[in-house]
Design brief:
Elements: H1 2-34, E1 40-43, E2 46-47, E3 58-62, E4 66-71, E5 81-85, E6 91-96, E7 105-116, E8 120-129, E9 132-141, E10 146-151
Antiparallel strand pairs: 1-10, 2-6, 3-4, 4-5, 5-6, 7-8, 8-9, 9-10
């Protein structure tokens, strides 16, 4: 009788440890897939004054509240333009999505968005720049402010 209680207790402890380890591992995998890891950045871009542009090359809706758009660079532009539109289609911010000074950025695109952390939205996408076609991560807070973006290497 006493042996059965000891076995049950040991099994309970073992299963509890496995459950905690599984939860920690899941959190670790989630964190790595949503955070920059050995990427280039963080970047915040250069403010663009004139942002009356048409026909974005990439666009993604974020919670039916915001629209994130990118526009390929024209001959006079230093980099592609990225802007965020608010609920009434007003421009909240508009930037040249540049990288490092010695690099060129040719195209930016968006593929998905989700909330990460307490008040951050992650927009995943791609970038075609000096180092080729790579992953891009854009972080925006829930108020629509650009926090930072990263380009993979």
């Amino acid at each position: 009788m006493k042996l059965k209680r000891i076995i049950k207790l040991v099994l309970l402890i073992l299963l509890s440890v496995l459950l905690i380890a599984g939860i920690a591992f899941t959190f670790f995998i989630y964190k790595i897939s949503n955070e920059p890891f050995m990427d280039d950045g963080p970047f915040t871009g250069a403010t663009r004054k004139d942002c009356q542009l048409n026909n974005p090359n990439s666009e993604i809706k974020i919670y039916e509240k915001y629209t994130l758009q990118s526009f390929n660079s024209k001959a006079k532009d230093e980099s592609p333009t990225v802007r965020l539109l608010g609920p009434s289609q007003e421009i909240l911010w508009c930037i040249y999505a540049n990288g490092y000074k010695e690099t060129d950025v040719y195209e930016v695109s968006f593929s998905s968005s989700k909330e990460v952390g307490y008040d951050r939205i992650l927009v995943k996408g791609g970038v075609y720049w000096t180092y080729g076609h790579e992953r891009a991560l854009w972080y925006i807070n829930n108020d629509g402010k650009l926090l930072e973006y990263w380009y993979s290497w």
